């Protein structure tokens, strides 16, 4: 019953939000509007269109969500992570491939990062990170595999607040000589860039930002897509796998055995190196600069840059 009520009320709430969004934009008088998808952006983009304000809509998923599909024609410019997204949105012009803006990781030093996490020189390390949704599946696999995993590898594990106590208990249950090889954390904020730099393999979900940061570090990925979200993560994962930078394990098949099999990639240097090179080919370290260039052009009412210039900026090449 509650779901049926929201199916009726949500469109009405969105309609009622358009005058509110219009009033805010009139009061703030922005030079341009930037939206990143989700239903909350619909009234803002409608209001911007009504007021003649230029707008940029960014979509990081390969398969665009319903709200993005609904508002793509309202935006002056689209910025996407994959060329197929432009085709899915029916935009032949005004759609730029920028990649996914991430934190600037170009100055992160791998050896210094490994020292911060007490990973010895030459040791092989994996990072397991469940993202913001449904880390329980990954956590369970780590804890079950832990004794065998730590025989050969170091493991950095972001377990989330709910999984952290169990992870600490599992660490204490390890033999003393293996305990230092397992480093659980509830969260990593500023330290996440160091964790990615320190690792040799990432095991995680298929959020656009996670995959973009892995690519920036040339990090092979074993991807366990979150099964919800209308299949967006599966499409993101398939793009990485098709490029040769990752392996895909369905959520329902990911367990301790699957994790140990994934970690075995670290025992195959040639395969690992090929996947790392493929990951680097996907990297768009200048994505934030590319999006900023488009926003400034809109705000200053300048002609939009050529797509080739934006792609060079996104790739980190000289414009």
What characteristics describe this protein?
single chain; 319 residues; alpha/beta; Rossmann fold; 4-stranded parallel β-sheet; 51% helix; elongated
Structure description:
By secondary structure, the protein is of the alpha/beta class. The protein has two domains: 2-100 and 285-315, Glycogen Phosphorylase B (Rossmann fold, 3-Layer(aba) Sandwich); 110-282, Rossmann fold (3-Layer(aba) Sandwich). Helix content is 51%, strand content 12%. It is built from 15 helices and ten strands. The strands form two sheets. A six-stranded parallel β-sheet has the order 7-6-5-8-9-10, with helices on both faces. The chain has a four-stranded parallel β-sheet with strand order 1-2-3-4, sandwiched between helices. Helix 10 (208-216) crosses helix 13 (269-282). It is elongated, with a radius of gyration of 22 Å. The N and C termini lie far apart (55 Å).
Q: What is the fold's blueprint, element by element?
A:
Elements: H1 2-28, E1 33-35, H2 41-51, E2 55-59, H3 66-71, E3 77-80, H4 83-88, E4 95-97, H5 110-116, E5 125-129, H6 136-152, E6 154-158, H7 160-172, H8 176-179, E7 182-185, H9 192-198, E8 201-204, H10 208-216, E9 221-223, H11 232-242, E10 246-248, H12 256-263, H13 269-282, H14 287-299, H15 307-315
Parallel strand pairs: 1-2, 2-3, 3-4, 5-6, 5-8, 6-7, 8-9, 9-10
Helix pairs in contact: 1-2, 5-9, 6-7, 6-12, 10-13, 14-15
Brief summary of the model shown:
With 319 residues, the chain is α/β, with parallel strands linked by helices. The chain has helices spanning 2-28, 41-51, 66-71, 83-88, 110-116, 136-152, 160-172, 176-179, 192-198, 208-216, 232-242, 256-263, 269-282, 287-299, 307-315, and strands at residues 33-35, 55-59, 77-80, 95-97, 125-129, 154-158, 182-185, 201-204, 221-223, 246-248. The strands form 2 sheets. The chain has a 6-stranded parallel sheet, with helices on both faces. The protein has a 4-stranded parallel sheet with strand order 1-2-3-4, sandwiched between helices.
């Amino acid at each position: 019953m509650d779901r049926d009520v929201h199916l009726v009320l949500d469109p009405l709430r969105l309609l009622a939000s358009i005058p509110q969004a219009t009033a805010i934009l009139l009061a703030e008088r922005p030079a341009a509007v930037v939206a990143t998808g989700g239903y909350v952006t619909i009234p803002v983009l409608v209001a911007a269109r009504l007021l003649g304000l230029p707008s940029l809509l960014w979509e990081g998923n390969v398969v665009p969500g319903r709200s993005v599909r609904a508002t793509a024609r309202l935006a002056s410019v689209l910025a996407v992570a994959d060329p197929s997204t432009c085709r899915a949105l029916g935009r032949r012009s005004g759609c730029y491939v920028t990649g996914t803006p991430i934190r600037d990781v170009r100055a992160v030093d791998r050896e210094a990062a490994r020292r911060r996490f007490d990973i010895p020189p030459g040791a092989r390390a994996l990072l397991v990170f469940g993202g913001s949704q449904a880390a329980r599946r990954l956590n369970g696999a780590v804890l079950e595999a832990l004794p065998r995993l730590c025989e050969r590898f170091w493991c950095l594990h972001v377990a989330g607040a709910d999984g952290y106590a169990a992870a600490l208990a599992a660490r204490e249950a390890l033999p003393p000589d293996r305990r230092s090889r397992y480093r659980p954390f509830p969260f990593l904020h500023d330290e996440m860039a160091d964790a990615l730099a320190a690792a040799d393999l990432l095991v995680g979900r298929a959020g656009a930002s996670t995959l973009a940061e892995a690519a920036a570090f040339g990090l092979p990925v074993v991807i366990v897509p979150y099964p919800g979200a209308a299949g967006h993560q599966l499409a993101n994962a398939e793009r990485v796998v098709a490029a040769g930078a990752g392996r895909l394990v369905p959520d329902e098949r990911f367990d301790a055995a699957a994790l140990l099999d994934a970690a075995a990639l670290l025992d195959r240097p040639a395969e690992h190196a090929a996947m790392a090179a493929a990951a680097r080919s996907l990297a768009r370290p200048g994505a934030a600069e590319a999006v900023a260039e488009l926003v400034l052009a809109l705000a200053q009412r300048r002609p939009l840059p050529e797509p080739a210039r934006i792609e060079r900026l996104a790739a980190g090449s000289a414009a």
